[in-house]
Amino acid sequence: MAVVQGKSSDVFNILQASLNYLDQGLSKQSLPYLTGEAISVADVVLSAALYPFLSDSSLALGEYKSLKAWFDHVAARHSFQSAAQKVLQGKGLQGMKSYMQRQPLPQSSVCRDSQPTNNGTPAECDEGERMVSEEEMEAAALTWCKGLNSSPLVKERQHPILPQEDKKNILVTSALPYVNNVPHLGNIIGCVLSADVFSRYGRLRGWNLLYVCGTDEYGTATENKAREEGLTPQQICDKYHAVHASIYKWFQIDFDFFGRTTTEKQTEIAQDIFWRLNKHGFLVEDTVEQLRCESCQRFLADRFVEGICPFCNYAEARGDQCDKCGRLINAVELREPQCKVCRQTPNIRSSKHLFLDLPKLETQLEQWLDKSTSTGDWTANAKQITRSWLRDGLKPRCITRDLHWGTPVPHPDFKEKVFYVWFDAPIGYLSITANYTDQWQKWWKNPHQVELYNFMAKDNVPFHSVVFPCSLLGAQDNYTLVNHLVATEYLNYEDTKFSKSRGVGVFGDMAKDTGIPSDVWRFYLLYVRPEGQDSAFSWADMALKNNSELLNNLGNFINRAGMFVTRFFEGCVPAMELLQEDKKLLAMVSWELQQYIQLMDKVRIRDGLKHILNISRHGNQYIQVNEPWKKIKGGETDRQRAGTVTGVSVNIACLLSVMLSPYMPTVSQTIRDQLNAPQSCISTMFQGTGTFVCSLSAGHRIGTVSPLFQKLEVDQIEALKKRFGGQQPEDEPPKKKMTAQNAASSPPAAVPTTAAPAAEVATANGADPEKAKLLTQAVTEQGDKVRTLKGQKAEKAVITAEVAKLLDLKKQLAVAEGKSLEPAAPQKSKKK
User: Fold this and answer.
1) Which reaction does it catalyse (predicted)?
2) Separation of alpha carbons 73 and 23, rounded Å
3) Packed helices 41-54 and 78-88: angle between N→C axes, nearest 10 degrees
4) Percent of the chain scored above 90 by pLDDT?
5) CA gap 419, 301 in Å, rounded
6) Full strand arrangement of the beta sheet holding 208-215
7) pLDDT in tens, 509-539
8) Is 603 left (phi over 0), alpha (psi -120 to 50) or beta?
9) How many Cβ atoms from other residues are within 10 Å of residue 549's Cβ?
């Protein structure tokens, strides 16, 4: 320290250069920590190394503003201060080790170096058990013993929901689904389901939250659908609005209001915004070239033109945007355009239109974006897509179209035109709210009191982050703009895209006919939610997650906990006397709960689900090691121990019922009904950063316990996969199965230079690849279980039994892979 303060030797110069470099790097990012929104090992290690310098007030650190702000942010944490005190008291590394053990792993327990699996979910981390300090154990036990407090119950909603002075007011929207498209699984997870989970979570947190959505009903697609079905556009909208509402009801999407855009309120509000933009000089006229299909006798809407992208050469780019490179396109820029209705080549015609002057609004937009993206929770893809738009420079955007079915343009020079859907549709959020309550402006013209969350897939980002905000900024009417823009990547189906026409993939109106409960669908879609990259729905993986995570992990733990109370303690929760092992479990569960709340607050929905499953895994191991079914038959000490383990376990089950509520509402309620759980446990558990307390005290009588989940069988999954896999083209003859006989009579083929794929060889040997995939996961999980038991030094009999199960699973796997199980011929001994 003296060397630094005296500024002698080269050490100070090296340190100063390093601090400069670090400060510059921190100043270029909007994240509070080195690697993201949550504190990581990198923050801990670096802040610990720099602690002697950065905590010394005598050093002139004012020039390192970003570095100082980062260090103050880390140092403000109570656990850091505690660890620092231990360093000063001579505990050195041990103090810092204790601090590091308390912190969440980078990216919420996801291994940085692990490679993503095919469905986009993180690969499992091969990490040891998290260390728990003595202080954590005692703190968790103290909190646990306080029990349920007198916090106010989560109130039932009373409509209309309006902003309140003393509340956190959250307005949630999900992208309006287009009315005549039946949503597939990717549409559902990308918008309404993700928003539903966050909304349910927010209500449990006690936030004053309003969730609105509805069908987007104007445009050419509706006109064409009406012509196909011999109905009017309004009749088509009425018909398919009901279809959407029915699908979302089955998926348990809990809107506060589900409306539509074909309303008088839509016309009123859209035309008001239009006149305000016109008044403030943000609209310009121009003559544009459009594509007109002479065969269909109409100008073609952008989405009814398809051709080659002029930027990336993608062959199926739409007339407004390329799905591959994400660039916006004018339809006339497409190479080799085709009308999607009749497949004829359209002609170019001129027409006069109105444009939103985006370049004139660009400065206002950038100022707002800088603030919103730095203070709000925008997903990385939303930020990236928005930056790319600004980097390329904004251009005037056409807001009118030569159509009949739409919100009419009120300007006398354009009375034959309607508003373009991407100017008109986002205004649907406002009009839908206005149809919910005549006090809608308290939500939409109240930016200082309301936080707005938009949920969507990534292709909708530019219209919500650039076009719509520019419309509202230009209107200059104190509109509420998006604070948190949450965009998913794409969910594919198996190894291809969803296609209604080809019968490929599961669509919303089909899911309920599979016999699989909606909660299981919700769970799996959220488990593979495409948060950081595209993911894929897979039947085999869905069965695997249902059978391993829901049935064998979560359901197994909750059912065992409840059944022990019923069988061993006559349905009443037994008395509990906590040992150190119990306190350790309470600390681990409390940490998982805190991580869950931290992630859910940041809309990290998929990662939040992993912490629920971690808790049930801890619970299963706890039961397995303590064996209450054996101890209940022993002496007084053993019976007391069985009671404690059972009581702690059933309380963890109660906690899980609360944490599951946003994801699996029916299962959550079923668990609470089985446990006869008090309503106050919800508000208590979700207080602050998360509070795990004893909510089912000794003497509490539970209800009837029954299994929560059913196994998905291989033959059931195979039938569903075939049903939703599409059909072979009729003109394609069925492939002839090769046998030894017809192989001999076939003409000689070229000799392959590589071996046949393993899957083909396995199939030829009578293998079952799908079953093999399920069994591979089962073998992995059973192996983990055996290793855990060995590490915990469980009884030899228990380990032997689990090893036997592992060996049996390996035999089943060998059969499924088509491997021979015949024992090798014994070698003759050389001894006489």
Assistant:
1) tRNA(Met) + L-methionine + ATP = L-methionyl-tRNA(Met) + AMP + diphosphate
2) 14
3) 50
4) 59
5) 12
6) 257-260, 208-215, 169-174, 450-457, 484-488
7) 999 999 999 999 999 999 999 998 999 999 9
8) left
9) 23
